[in-house]
């Protein structure tokens, strides 16, 4: 068993930002799954078809991504080593979700390349949180 070392202040800053980021993800997920027909009607027709055409399993993957990220962030803040495998599952779900939407549903042709910027940022943040949790474990900040 490795010794637990007191983490630096910036560890806590990252952990709190991770929690806030993932709370925003949970909010986005809930807003998406509870979208009213009136709200859906606000979108252009092509986007309405894209939104309505998502398969049910994709919402499950989306839930795993955001709730996994939130649980991983909470585990990080609680200095628990299981943050890393949870972040790994969350990142896998992010990649499956984004990959299917942009390549399986051909969203790039409907939304344009600019629409891929924010999902790319989400993927990078997911990868960073996995890396950070693994580094935190190797430094003894979580255990």
From TrEMBL:
Listed A to Z, the keywords are: Membrane, Transmembrane, Transmembrane helix
Residues passing through the membrane, by range: 9-30, 57-78, 85-103, 109-132
Write the protein's name: Sugar transporter
Name the species this protein comes from.
Hyphococcus luteus
